Amino acid sequence: MEPRKCDAKGKPMTGPGAPARKQRLIARSERRRPSRPLPIGWRIAVIASVVILFWLSVPNLVGFYDVPLVLAFVLSSVQCVTIVFAVRFARSAALAHIISVVFIGIFTRTTDEFWPVPIPNLLALTMLLILLGLRERWAVSVSVWWLSFLGMTVVVALNPDALTTRSEWGVDVMISVTVTLIALAVSVTFGQRGRVREIVATAKRDVELEQARRATVEERARIARELHDVVAHSMSIVHIQAESARYRVVDLDEARNEFNDIARSARAALGEMRQLLEALHPDEEPLYAPQPTIADIAALVRSTEKVGSRVEFVSEVNADEVSRLIQLTVYRIVQEALSNVIRHAPHASVRVHLRQSSENLEVRVKNDAPPRSADPRNEERGGRGLRGMRERVALVHGEVEQIPLPGGGFLIAVTLPTTIREETV
User: Fold this and answer.
1) DSSP letter for each residue of 27-55
2) Taking the model in full, what pTM does it have?
3) Radius of gyration over every alpha carbon of the chain, rounded to an integer in angstroms
4) How many CB atoms lie within 10 A of CB 299?
5) Quick one: how far is CA 125 from the chain centroid?
6) Which value, to the nearest 10 degrees, does the dihedral of the CA atoms of residues 383, 388, 390, 396 take?
7) Whether residue 359 has pLDDT greater than 80
8) Counting C-beta atoms within 10 Å of the first and last residue's C-beta, which end of the chain has fewer, N or C?
């Protein structure tokens, strides 16, 4: 029994509920994805701004708010360091920064200066929100802003004297909230715009990769169809001629002619296969050769008759009015149909009828049941021929019917457009 794939927690990744579980894991990994690397220019700007804010914050806390030097140094250091660490550890750094804002509000409540967040420390908080808005998801930035607003509210609520003795604290809070909110809105707008661009670029890249993968698969299928058609017919002719030669050839001249026919069929098959394989080596100059057309069907009929099947070929088609692509398709259809007769209904009578109307070309290949005296050694198992025929017809927007007839016969009826642009295939 094949082992079931499990996630990190041992839950199976296959079976009922597996797609939803995979989506949850993808979403969780997306949330935990590390932030984009900060360009060197932005790193220098952040460090320079942090140094300036530090040298503004310490003297401001000591001189205007009577905060002890050591405490002012520690609080300012925490604020500035968390801005730097927010580049890599956004959530932890933001939480530590908000805690420092709360402590700064508590230790500066005894003065009549701007409160509950001094101006240099308010600039540090604004810088943190800008950095988060540009680099993190909008939910993270908004959550940090709400926590900062809640921290200011807590500081004011913990100092009831400030509510009665200072009439400007409400204005100071509103100024702090407004400045940080504007900075948050602008940074989130630009940050989300950049993330949308990344998502669009990633989606475009995925679509291009999928298109390239699909083109590769389609090209492989086309080459497989061409190789099958070449090998199926030519090699079947060679095989039947070689198997039945000892029953048909009675003198040396007939033997020479028989071997010449076998060699001619083999050379034709090898030539077409070589032409296809040249397309797989783009570093080499390809050897171009004309593709088979309706005019070459007569040679198919003759080669089929040589192995004992009587073929009636009727063509009511003006080849000049039919595109080369459609002519190649008709040739391959007749080739595959005759190959199937040789393999599965040896010595059966066949009728090939091509008829052209104003816009369509009809191909009908009908074979009777093989005679009872047919050699069963020539029977083979079915392959990809009929399916490849359906795929080939679908590529040129045609229709095909493959109908077993009563008594052991078979009918292939195909309707194709007379003209089609090759670039649409």
Assistant:
1) HHHHHTPPPPPPPHHHHHHHHHHHHHHHH
2) 0.47
3) 41
4) 14
5) 43
6) -170
7) yes
8) N
The backbone torsions φ and ψ at residue 401, rounded to the nearest 5 degrees and listed phi first, read -125, 130
The phi-psi region of residue 140 (left if phi > 0; otherwise alpha if psi is between -120 and 50; otherwise beta) is: alpha
Residue 396 predicted with pLDDT over 60: yes
Measured in whole angstroms, how far is the alpha carbon of residue 187 from the centre of its chain?
A: 32
Contacts of 228 (CB under 8 A, 6+ apart): 383, 384, 385, 388
- Compute φ and ψ for 339, nearest 5 degrees: -60, -40
DSSP assignment, residue 129?
A: H
**pLDDT tens, 38-90?**
778 878 888 899 999 999 999 999 988 889 999 999 999 999 999 999 988 88
Q: Helix or strand or coil: residue 410?
A: strand
**Cis status, amide bond into 116, omega within 30 of 0:** yes
Diameter over CA atoms, the chain: 129
Burial group, residue 262, by CB count within 10 angstroms (0-12, 13-18, 19+)? middle
CB-based contact 308:347 (threshold 8 Å): yes
d(CA 164, CA 341): 105
* Tokens, residue 100: 């420092």
Provide the b/e sequence for 281-292 (b: ≥16 CB within 10 Å). Answer: eeeeeeeeeeeb
Give the dihedral of Cα atoms 120, 123, 125, 127; nearest 10 deg: -140
Terminal alpha carbon distance of the chain:
43
Q: For helices 169-248 and 138-157, give the axis angle rounded to 10 degrees.
A: 160
Distance CA(340)–CA(342), nearest Å, equals: 5
pLDDT value at 156 more than 60: yes
Which amino acid would we find at residue 64? F
**C-alpha angle 412/414/417, rounded to 5°?**
170
Name every residue whose Cβ is closer than 8 Å to that of residue 96 and which is 6 or more positions away in sequence. Answer: 78, 82
pLDDT at 111 over 80: no
Q: Is 383 exposed, middle or buried (0-12, 13-18, 19+ CB in 10 A)?
A: middle
Can you read off the two tokens belonging to residue 21? 């579980």
Contact by Cβ (8 Å): 361, 355: yes
DSSP H helices in 249-317: 252-278, 297-306
